[in-house]
Amino acid sequence: MRKWWLIIGCALALVSCREYTVSDDPGLRLAFSADTICFDTVFTAQGSTTAQVKVYNRNASAVMVDRVWLTKGEAFYANVDGEPELSRLTHLQINGGDSVYVFVRVEIDPTGSSMPLLVNDQLHFHLANGTTQEIELEAYGQDVQRIGRVGSGRKDTTSITFTAILPYVLFDTLVVQGDLVFEAGATLYMHNGACLYALGDVTAKGRLDAPVVVRGDRLDRLFDSVPYSYAGGSWNGIYLQSEHVQQYDLEYMDILSGNIGLYCYHNGSSSLPQLRMNGCRIHNHALYGLVLINTDAVVSNTEISNCASYCLYCSGGTHQFVHSTIASYFNYTNIRIQSVAKEDCAAVYIDNLSKNGPQTVTSFYNSIITGFLKNQLVVATPFDQYYPGAFVGNYLKTDTLRMPHASENIYWQKDDTTAVFVKDFYKYKEYVYYDFRPDSLSPVRGIGDSIVALPYPMDRNGVSRALMRPDAGCYQYLP
After folding, report:
1. What is this structure's pTM?
2. N or C: which end of the chain has fewer CB within 10 A?
3. Structural contact between residues 265 and 239, judged by C-beta atoms closer than 8 angstroms
4. Are 180 and 221 a contacting pair, CB within 8 Å?
5. Dist. CA 398–CA 294, nearest whole Å
6. Does residue 4 surpass a pLDDT of 80?
7. CA 152 to CA 158: how far, in whole Å?
8. Cβ count near 153 (within 10 Å)
9. What is the DSSP letter of 142?
10. Cα(276)–Cα(410) distance, rounded to whole angstroms?
11. Is 396 exposed, middle or buried (0-12, 13-18, 19+ CB in 10 A)?
């Protein structure tokens, strides 16, 4: 018996020694957790986040890496096994079954072009057995116009026009005293905590083929299938505030993944500001989507979706929502990517309880108000039977609506089995994000009022509503 234990012990010792013994077998290879490191678009002269890849020795014997180098070494920087100077990295031994980490970042000089420019390189590993292996490195460099810098504080300007020539990055707080204009195709990236205040008129001239986009400046990924743009709260918000009557005219403007999408406030002491929104999208905010306080508004063909608190809050003013989709499915997913949880509140809150401010008259036509909680519409008013707002041709998930001007609406029932939207639950492994177009059997199909739809013959995606009774919401079903 002792003989067998001795044999087993010797065998284990030989295997253990083999793990630490460098082999010059030319057939031995390293394995990489990724053969290519691809960075998403990187702002020039700013630098990227750090990507990592793991280098495995899956062989029984140890291998020796004699040299590691970059082909060009102009934009990419690598740290291998804790060594940032690759020229010092010689005789790196990776034992059998062991691994080392490689960290890579990229800094791209300004390109002088308005379009992203591809930059690439190769990270080479030369083994003592004569084998050389590579990891491909790729990134797109994008020139940007910077406004302020991190921690620079408030910056005031009389007026500003954002064009589509280059994207902009706002690092802190920008206060626009006069006119604020977004040309078609303009993109404004907001750094963490950045916010935009507009005290004058605001115009966004977006188009279906060239929308105005305001979003966070993280272009990399939280996980392989999850961009940082899917995480709300990456910047502060857009605030439209003035003591005077202002005009806010927003066409095809996407406001994405901040704390607050659009906050419109007036003190209510004089004539109210006028907001017109068409073809816009306010999506994925860690607090509110659209806040209207003492502001008149006409909102059409617009999606307001996925906010941790109210998607829409109205208090003071006359508001009309036509062919709009308000969907509250924030954090309705099987992966935790949000920094906050969904609050137990409705998608839409209409506050008509103020005794001193303007009356709140909010109406919905051919629209959708829904979400994963039971009640998604609250109208807070002293006497329901006297509330002047109208609800016609909508799909509503609510148990509190008892209004005199409510007709031709379809209400959610707890035993409904048909899906409202193409995708209201985010399954990240499927690489399919939320999609608030109507499902083929959706109850929102064909319930809209045809007369109401006449001024809006096309939906937000340019699909015609003319050939059939319109669907509720900003999207018409397209087979």
Report:
1. 0.90
2. C
3. yes
4. no
5. 25
6. no
7. 18
8. 9
9. E
10. 27
11. buried
Q: Which amino acid is at 457?
A: P
Largest Cα–Cα distance of the chain, in whole Å?
Answer: 100
Place of tokens 């905590």: 193
Count of C-beta atoms within a 10 Å radius of residue 15: 11
Whole-angstrom distance, CA of residue 369 vs CA of residue 21: 67
pLDDT band at 416 (very low <50, low <70, confident <90, very high): confident
- pLDDT tens figures, 271-293: 999 999 999 999 999 999 999 99
Q: How far is CA 149 from CA 47, 157, 251, 258, 435, in A?
A: 14, 15, 29, 19, 35
Measure the CA–CA gap between 146 and 319, rounded to whole angstroms. Answer: 36
* First CA to last CA distance, the chain: 76
Nearest-Å Rg of the Cα atoms of the chain is 29
383-387-392 Cα angle (round to 5): 135
What are the beta bridge partners of residue 296?
Answer: 274
What's the confidence (pLDDT) of residue 296? Answer: 97
Which helix or strand (DSSP H or E) is residue 453 part of?
helix 450-453
Residues 6+ apart with CB under 8 A from 331: 308, 338, 341, 342
At 56-114, the pLDDT tens digits run 999 999 999 999 999 999 999 999 999 999 999 989 999 999 999 999 999 999 989 88
Residue 255 identity: I
pLDDT of residue 150: 78
Strands (E), 143-278: 145-147, 154-157, 160-162, 168-170, 173-176, 180-182, 187-190, 195-198, 202-205, 212-216, 221-223, 226-227, 237-241, 247-251, 253-256, 260-265, 274-278
pLDDT at residue number 47: 84
